[in-house]
Amino acid sequence: MRGRYVYAAVVAAALVAHFLVPEGFWDTVVQLGTCYLAALAIPLGLHGRGLTRAEQTPWWLFAGATALSSTGGIAVLSNVGELTGPDLSDYLYLSFYPMCAVALGIMIRQLNRRVSAAAAVEALIVTTGTGLLAWIYQIEPALHAGGEVFAERLTAIAYPIADMLLVALTVLMARTNGPEGGVAPRWIAGAFILYLIGDSAWVTVEHIHPEWSGDALTGRIIDGCYLLALSLLALAAWRPGVRAGETIGFRVSVPHFVLLSAAVMIAPAVLFAQTFDRQVTNGRAVAIGSTVMFALVIIRMGGLLRQSERTMRQVFELSRRDALTGLPNRRASTDELPRILDQARRDGLTLSVGMLDLDHFKDYNDRYGHPAGDRLLKEATAAWHAALRRSDVLARYGGEEFIVFLPGATLDEATHALDRLRPVTPHGQTFSAGIAAWDGTESPEDLIARADAALYTAKRSGRDQVCPAPAS
How far is CA 294 from the centre of its chain? Predict the structure, then answer.
């Protein structure tokens, strides 16, 4: 823990020095020292964390990628080649991307063996938006560049493609990690976002506003993005635990909504900018990009609608189900009774309704405690449900009171059915019950009221009995 704070302090000092030290030898020392320190800090952060070899693998890949990318800076400073050509520095810089991509893939697999459809669609949306910018400002110009050998053009194309790969994997990791997941994946996502911001700024300076390339502050800001990105990646290693967070499903948080909205608005923004300049040169690419993104958004919306429907069904079922016993609750029973009465009227069948109440349940709770009372309710309802017919409906009416519908049962048959429940009541407990037979005309409320009145007659008569209600 202490080492992490020391490293963070050193990085903060190095970033301040990066902006204050004049360009030249010492500024180069600060930049390279910060990069190599990040590569060294990753294995130092892993030390003593108790990670398995498999859990350490992505971190060693991050460390190797950071070291190779830093060596690319030495290659440039040693005049081995220029950034625009396929020289040693390019190969070293480009090695950063596949190594980090493999590390992210391993980490995503450690977070969750199955990537959710929502995360995949979101990653495609963001990647398509950024890919449109890459195509317009890097890939297409490189494909049509004259006077360059094939290897040079291939190198120029490799950078934006590698960036898009990192974008997709970073979004996948962030969504797979979830809002309740580990801290390290969030730091890693922040590191790669900064790295991609640096790449985007470099593209802007080189291809869109070349007049900015001579500004010293612009170069320092771009380099600062890379330095801070690699340092955040190293800081994440000091808290390397990867654990699965909340299941993603199709929920959209505010940051994800903002990210998706920004990605979808890229195509209209490009078209607006080119229209403003009265020169729409990439209309076909914008149209294709817009079509793909809108199709992905529609898929995402469809997933949200399906998830919303499933959630509504689950909420509806939960609102009609007693959480303790698993039986239908009072709302479900009062909603179901009119349907049962209509069915009995159409079929010309009899119907009886019983009200059951456990005797002295409050005393049982006071003597044995509420957990024991809850167990009694669950065991009693399970035993009663097993003793009733499959066509009978048992529901919890409230507290220790229950209601049972017995389709096709006369008053005598229903009374005998409830009598059969008495010996299976667990823990030597008893219940009182009232039973009422439907006369074919009375309302559900009147029928329940008669059964309830019979229940209280049973309780006043000494409990532990089933009392039939007189005819209405």
Answer: 22
pLDDT digits (tens, 9 = 90+) for 451-467: 999 999 999 999 999 99
What are 72's two structure tokens?
């690319």
Q: What tokens does 30 get?
A: 């600060």
Tell me the CATH number for domain 330-468.
3.30.70.270
What's the Cα-to-Cα distance from 465 to each of 234, 358, 434, rounded to whole Å? 74, 11, 9
Bridge partners of 351, per DSSP, are 407
Residue 68: C-alpha distances to residues 14, 71, 84, 118, 222 (Å): 20, 5, 18, 34, 19
pLDDT per residue as tens digits for the range 315-368:
888 889 998 999 999 999 999 999 999 999 998 889 999 999 999 999 999 999
The first and second tokens of residue 206, run together, are: 């080189």
Per-residue pLDDT, 216: 75
Separation CA 189–CA 233 (nearest Å): 9
- Find where tokens 């076909």 sit: 284
Specify the pairing of strand 431-437 against strand 351-358: antiparallel
User: Does residue 102 contact residue 61 with C-beta atoms inside 8 Å?
Assistant: yes
Q: What is the pTM of this model?
A: 0.69
CA 25 to chain centre: 48
Contact, 287 vs 271, CB < 8 A?
Answer: no
Per-domain residue ranges of the chain: 2-111+183-240, 330-468
Residue 469 amino acid letter: A
106 contacts 169 by C-beta, under 8 angstroms: no
The CA–CA distances, whole Å, from 242 to 62, 108, 178, 234 equal 15, 9, 11, 15
Cβ atoms of 212 and 151 closer than 8 Å: no
Q: How far apart are CA 122 and CA 408, in angstroms?
A: 55
Q: Are 136 and 207 in contact (CB under 8 A)?
A: no
